[in-house]
Write a structure and sequence with these properties.
389 residues; mainly alpha; Hypothetical protein af1432; globular
Length: 389
């Protein structure tokens, strides 16, 4: 006998902690739909996200390195998958709903524009007089408006709980009275994102040679983790040793979140998923690990993300984005039909911003060559970074 949706929802009642978000008590969707016979709501949400065009585009969007610069560097897609893996681990250990955590994790960067955080800063500057741009808000916009999958409505029609988890910080206009935090599943995704940035961007930085272990030795978190990991293995070759230190660091951060959050949950004793929304964040690093991780993130921002070898090429990439914006906002007939029709509802500036945010790194260059020309191709820019190939 197959296990139907009711069977799966009953099993949630036995497996999940009382403060987890059960799919059977979801606040539902904006557009009413019939329930699926075999899949609970959050599982359906996860599947809708993975099957979306926006999710597929993440493969060709910058994480840190320009897409295609090297075969082993993270893209926005691989970062998203890694966040999802960490979030599932946290959710399972803390008795939370893994389907919900995974859905939020897989959708959390759907609104990220091309060229990483510099692309986000550029669109925010260009939209300063028209509502600004933040990738978290854009992720919500993607799943509520820009995906076109259903004949009756725009968007993916995800559940309230997934949409709630995509907002960061939690906006006042989305608050239910008395709520100050999203679900614990959403909080777990937020910490998973931070852990992924710390460990996986470090991996890419070391792989590229733009940062080195001597520099990292100045940081307490790296130094102590390095000693812990390699003390039993003093003669490991450098590459194997580096990966083992990074693996140990990831495990250390995940264990810290699980142990500290368990104590926070026990102390506050929430009895329902709505109880946790009335407390300060309960899924957190311990104070000492939070301090050490902030120190490491500060290092990444100053010594890696802003490295001249990255910023010079990104700057030229952003020039393409800016020039395209200035052209298209004045000539909206050049937008693809999906975005041209949105001008009446959202105005030319927002429609142009939506269009550019959806493009991949490669598509920006294709559109620039088509309409403007005069700047190097994506392939040329890659070749200007021989040390990163």
């Amino acid at each position: 006998m197959p296990r139907n949706r009711f069977d799966l929802e009953k099993s949630e009642a036995h497996l999940l902690a009382p403060y987890a978000q059960s799919s059977s008590v979801s606040r539902g969707r904006v557009h009413q739909e019939d329930q699926h016979p075999f899949r609970p709501d959050f599982q359906r949400d996860r599947d809708r996200i993975v099957h979306s065009r926006s999710f597929r585009r993440l493969e060709y969007k910058t994480q840190v390195f320009l897409n295609g610069t090297g075969d082993h560097y993270r893209t926005r897609m691989t970062h998203t998958i890694e966040v999802s893996c960490i979030a599932r681990t946290l959710a399972r250990a803390l008795g939370l709903n893994e389907d919900l955590a995974e859905a939020i994790a897989l959708a959390h960067d759907l609104g990220h524009p091309p060229f990483g955080h510099l692309g986000e800063e550029t669109l925010n500057k260009l939209m300063a007089q028209h509502g600004g741009f933040r990738h978290n808000v854009q992720s919500v916009r993607v799943v509520e408006e820009l995906e076109l999958k259903y004949p009756e409505f725009n968007g993916l029609n995800l559940t309230w709980e997934v949409i709630e988890g995509l907002h960061k910080p939690y906006p006042a206009n989305r608050l239910i009275e008395g709520f100050i935090q999203p679900s614990l599943e959403a909080q777990a995704v937020d910490l998973s994102d931070q852990i992924a940035y710390i460990c996986h961007d470090l991996d890419d930085g070391l792989e590229s040679g733009l940062i080195n272990e001597q520099e990292l030795g100045e940081l307490d978190l790296w130094r102590t983790t390095w000693k812990e990991a390699l003390a039993p293995y003093p003669h490991l070759e450098p590459e194997r040793g580096r990966y083992y230190v990074l693996r140990t660091l990831l495990g250390r951060l995940v264990d810290d979140v699980i142990n500290h959050s368990s104590r926070e949950i026990e102390e506050h004793a929430p009895q329902s998923s709505d109880d946790v929304r009335r407390f300060p964040a309960l899924i957190t690093f311990s104070p000492e690990t939070a301090r050490l991780s902030r120190e490491l993130l500060k290092f990444l921002y100053s010594r890696f993300y802003q490295h001249p070898a990255l910023t010079a090429v990104r700057r030229r990439s952003v020039d393409c984005l800016e020039q395209l914006f200035e052209l298209l906002v004045g000539r909206p007939h050049l937008l693809s039909p999906q975005f041209e029709v949105r001008i009446k509802k959202d105005g030319a500036y927002r429609a142009t911003c939506d269009y550019l945010a959806c493009l991949t790194d490669r598509q920006v260059y294709i559109q620039h060559r088509k309409f403007i020309g005069g700047l190097p191709s994506l392939e040329t820019l890659r070749l200007e970074q021989p040390a990163l190939l």
